[in-house]
């Protein structure tokens, strides 16, 4: 079974084609500048990479270009679209309607549309890509995999904000959480490394990239997560502030004479590592500047790691029993100083990093804790595309089994 995984942004389409018998990535790529005069498709197959430049007027044309690229040439991974068994789509927000991945039907599309106000920047392009795939590949099953689904097991007392309750009942204001596909994947991988069934693993998963979030996982299920109604809450991120005093926007509106739209832009795009350091939103550049004595870059690094440490402590308390802290994402997998600083002086919680093991991590899943550490500290490479492909296969095969059972 070959599955095409699609992740659509407002002007981009990221994709992977996987052979599910071996879970091998046959090809992958990124189409950028959809809707602009010249689109750029970067396509990778094995060690080979090529770039295609042409006008791509919309996502449907973009999907057409991707399919053409996958099926053209003597060494193409597929000869025609009939070899694609299913398409798995990343959909950011499923609201409270979806607790797992689902086969896309007209009612499912209507519910995704209804949740657009909860993710106005993400759900519309996700839907556009979904519709484009359905039109281009008629008869091929499409599966929606939701970032929010993994967090639908968070209990009411953890997802409810202390606001007038009608804000929740009438306007659906609550904690939803994001990065769920990544947190679920690394939780499953971490359980394997620990030699435990997922249902017996208590974990803190730490997804650190340009966007950052943490999740408390009890017995394989999310019971709390740092991102809230939107991805702005929680940890310090590349350009997002994370947790702040909620009165600050009103103070800024009064002090600076700016409207809430401008403040929203500042909190989402001009804050975080970029805002504090004045250098960059990229952790690699932050660390390089800190190493050269830049005081603001050093401060940004310390704030970033301190916030992670605070959440580790909070989630350890929430879980009661903890088997492992799991670092993932671009920063979590690759940044030695952040892992070290985030776990520094957590011996009272049974968390101890072996600094030599921490420095030796090189592109593989690893246990970087000391032999005496009561809680393991793991580095696990996330793979959201593989998780989406696995879900897509399970949903499609489950649907086929259900139809056979009903005949």
Q: Would you list the SSEs in sequence order as H and E?
A: EEEEEHEEHHEHHHEEEHHHHHEHHHEEH
**Count of discrete alpha- or pi-helical segments spanning 4 or more residues:** 15
Helical percentage: 25-40%
Total discrete domains: 2
**What is the molecular shape?**
globular
Fold-level CATH name of the largest domain: Nucleotidyltransferase, domain 5
Distance between termini? 23 Å
Biggest pleated sheet: 8 strands, mixed
Regions with little confidence, pLDDT below 50 for 5+ residues: none
Which secondary-structure class do the elements indicate? alpha/beta
CATH superfamily heading of the largest domain: ATPase, nucleotide binding domain
**Average pLDDT figure:** 94
Class of the largest domain, according to the CATH hierarchy?
Answer: Alpha Beta
Q: What fraction strand? A: 15-25%
Which architecture name of the largest domain does CATH use? 2-Layer Sandwich
Calculate Rg over CA atoms. Answer: 22 Å
Write up this protein.
With 407 residues, the protein is an alpha/beta fold. It folds into two domains: 2-146, 2-Layer Sandwich (Nucleotidyltransferase, domain 5), CATH 3.30.420.40; 195-384, Nucleotidyltransferase, domain 5, CATH 3.30.420.40. It is built from 15 helices and 14 strands. The strands form two sheets. The chain has an eight-stranded mixed β-sheet with strand order 5-4-3-2-1-6-8-7, sandwiched between helices. A hairpin with a 3-residue loop joins strand 9 (203-208) and strand 10 (212-218). Helix 1 packs across helix 3, helix 10 crosses helix 11 (295-319) and helix 11 crosses helix 13 (336-342). The longest helix is centred in the C-terminal third of the chain and has 25 residues, at 295-319. The radius of gyration is 22 Å and the shape is globular. The two termini are 23 Å apart.
